[in-house]
Design brief:
The structure is a homodimer of 197-residue chains.
Chain A: H1 4-13, H2 21-33, H3 35-52, E1 54-55, E2 62-63, H4 69-72, E3 77-84, H5 87-96, E4 101-105, H6 123-133, E5 137-140, H7 146-159, E6 165-168, H8 184-192
Parallel strand pairs in A: 3-4, 3-5, 5-6
Antiparallel strand pairs in A: 1-2
């Protein structure tokens, strides 16, 4: 546009999810027009986060300490491991606030198409964690997609005989959901898993 | 969420136009997962832009040099000043590539409601620029909104008798526009300003 610095800033902003070339230009101008309130603090914040935050060597969560604050929290149920695809899923479950056990972040799903095998994910680590946990619960909280459920089945197979109790999230009508707008698969799952009132 | 650093990063990202709290979380995770490719370069790029880029003292454009590279470009038509509301509008006209004169960035529009008067914008500076330009052209390229057109009329009034030739952008059917989807005001303007083929 006008200079190398602005062009580079726009190009980098445009690579963030949710921002395209046009909104990256708007964001760059907004930054330049709010230098002291946002631009300088944002640069410092990104730098601080980049140097301070890293993956937990136990569960794969992102934190400033290793093991992460969830793995280190003695008040949590250490017999329970909730397996999620990504840190975003872990954050979502933490926001929901009903689960008080530990986590295990796989880093994705198995995918024959993309050439992602078990050794590309944190699956071997999960198996050894579950084995050493002896008799605890492993909750498979993968997304309800084909890849997510394939990965869940693979892990369930691998954990068979390890002594771990294996469960998965319930499928059904989302809270606030209207039947008319739900897909058939969800309705079938909700009907099958109906509960006595 | 998990730590002060991440919370602060998400809060700052959420203030960018086009990003809300949810997309700011996604962007923060994306940054943390692409540390070397994007996160560190982005922090450096924001910092470089913040320290290198400032407003041009002549026209208000943003650039690393002052006067800006447009004001300093001797190949441009120095008799023509195109008045725009914001730097984003200047960029849009530069992308279009048909204008080869100078610019003047007002920094907004007059607005009685928001208490924005002529002295809050670069209007006095524009008047003196146009006067010293003697007989050049002033193109009023404000947005076709009520505030934009009010500002254009105010400036046209102030420039009357300065010797400057005053023009405004044409109103009409946008290229690629379908009549059926255009508002009545645009159709009336396009009909009134029809041209012989």
């Amino acid at each position: 546009m006008i200079g190398r610095e602005i062009d580079q800033l726009i190009a980098l902003l445009a690579r963030l999810p949710g921002l395209g070339p046009r909104s990256a230009r708007r964001a760059a101008l907004y930054l330049l027009n709010h230098r002291d309130q946002i631009m300088v603090p944002l640069a410092e914040s990104i730098e601080a986060a980049a140097s301070a935050i890293g993956p937990c060597s136990v569960c794969g969560n992102l934190d400033t300490v290793d093991p992460c604050s969830i793995c280190a929290d003695e008040a949590r149920d250490r017999q329970s491991i909730c397996v999620v695809e990504t840190v975003a899923d872990l954050w979502a479950l933490e926001r929901a606030g009903s689960y008080r056990g530990l986590y295990h972040v796989l880093g994705g799903t198995l995918s024959a198409l993309d050439g992602v095998g078990p050794e590309d994910l944190a699956i071997p680590k999960l198996i050894s964690r579950a084995r050493s946990n002896g008799g605890g619960e492993v909750i498979l909280a993968m997304n309800a997609t084909v890849d997510g459920q394939t990965t869940a089945h693979y892990i369930a197979d691998k954990l068979a005989g390890s002594g771990a109790e294996i469960s998965r999230l319930a499928h059904g009508v989302p809270v606030g959901g209207e039947l008319d707008f739900l897909d058939d698969g969800t309705l079938v799952a909700a009907m099958r898993a109906r509960r006595a009132l």
